[in-house]
Amino acid sequence: MNEIKINTEFIKLDAFLKWCGAASTGAEAKIYVQEGDVLVNGEVCIQRGKKLKINDVVTFDNEDYKII
């Protein structure tokens, strides 16, 4: 599991995908989310503006990213 540190109280899902390197652009992140390719805490999430907090786990492309 990859641990990704954020410096704020929360981060939006699309911004997080860019931050952790899973997506190279915001537009790319938006497409992944809209197509249902991203899981948040084990459930498909199609809200690109979903607020992620410490200890949330994002799964994309068979990789897990835990927010610390």
UniProtKB/TrEMBL annotation:
Keywords: RNA-binding. The keyword RNA-binding applies. It comes from the Bacteria. NCBIfam families: YaaA_near_RecF (TIGR02988). This is S4 domain-containing protein YaaA. It comes from Clostridium yunnanense.
